[in-house]
Amino acid sequence: MSTLMDDIKTTKDALDKARDESIISPRFYSTDYAAVDRIDITPVRAEWDAMMQEFRDDPNGEHFQRDDAFRARVADLEPELRAEFYDFLISSATSEFSGCVLYNEIKRRVNNPDIKELMGYMARDESRHAGFINQSLKDFGVNIDLGDLKRTKKYTYFKPKYIFYATYLSEKIGYARYITIFRQLQRHPELQFHPIYSWFEQWCNDEFRHGEAFALILRANPHLLQGHNRLWIKFFLLAVYATMYVRDHTRPALHKALGFDPTGYDYEVFRITSEITRQTFPLTLDIDHPRFRQGMETLRELGAASELARKQGGVLSSVKRLWLGAKASVVFASVYLIPSKANALPERVRLAPVW
């Protein structure tokens, strides 16, 4: 059963949800801007210049325009589906706006012309994405005050290399998630209960291109992919996959409405993301290993129990959540120790969004 039945009825409810700091909630980030300013992309200059021309050409400049379908299809959804769809929209808008805030701040703080120009274009794209989602929330009367969110959301500090790993993965897995939904609805248009999904194909090409930028940054600085950094790459891969798995299983009604089983959907996204990240990462996770699959399930169960304890409140619930968190850490470590699959990096970095 869904854990999202606490209905969101007002803009304040939506903002409170966006501010949430649970382990599966999108975060806002800060970093060492001076270190980012020193990034050198010379080793990938030809591919970088071609990518930057794509950003300048702005292929999705006119894409995010609403049509009459939005006014005509503010669906009267069943309560459980409505709650989960709200949660999806709020989480997605928060995640997109998080990228906008981070990229704008990097642009403001650096002088490196390559990084400054890139961050300006990516902030532009993420602002469009967040605003487009927020318009759909406004149709339901529960939009997010993005200015307030920027001022009041807690910020997490990450070293630049962690920003690169996490953001590269976020952009690529975002592409994989959106394109998987879009392809499903191409096959089954009768399942499309809201018009926003029609925008997903071109939209996720923005996500793909953003990931390409971080792929080039990482490949231009090969020390970030070697030695002990391989352990960090494995950590971020597992953390992103586990977070997605736990979060998606809190939305069973949403996935059912789209014709998905959450587990099947997640493993398809993991498969696509693993294929894509071979362009950049020297390893992939063994997502078909029985212990990996059992570990994801156990983390899901522990996450559901922890969320239930959080809602119950009180001292005993806090103690229970600490105990559940410790158990989750042991499970995460067990899955982390599954041998990864080595990957030889291709000579050419860039990929096309062909999935």
What does this structure look like?
The protein is an all-alpha fold. It has a domain at 11-229. 66% of the residues lie in helices and 3% in strands. The two termini are 31 Å apart.
Number of β-strand runs: 4
What's the Cα radius of gyration? 20 Å
Measured by DSSP, the beta-strand proportion falls in: under 5%
Question: Largest sheet, if any?
Answer: 2 strands, parallel
What gap, in angstroms, lies between the N and C termini? 31 Å
Low-confidence stretches: 1-5
What class, by secondary structure content? mainly alpha
Mean pLDDT: 91
Task: Sum this structure up briefly.
The protein is mainly alpha-helical.
SSE arrangement:
Blueprint (H helix, E strand, L loop, with lengths): L10 H9 L8 E3 L2 H5 L7 H13 L10 H5 L6 H31 L3 H27 L6 H7 L2 E3 L2 H28 L12 H21 L8 H20 L3 H6 L4 H16 L5 E2 L5 H23 L2 H22 L4 E2 L13
Parallel strand pairs: 1-2
Antiparallel strand pairs: 3-4
Helix pairs in contact: 1-5, 3-9, 5-6, 6-9, 8-9, 8-10, 8-12, 10-12, 10-13, 13-14
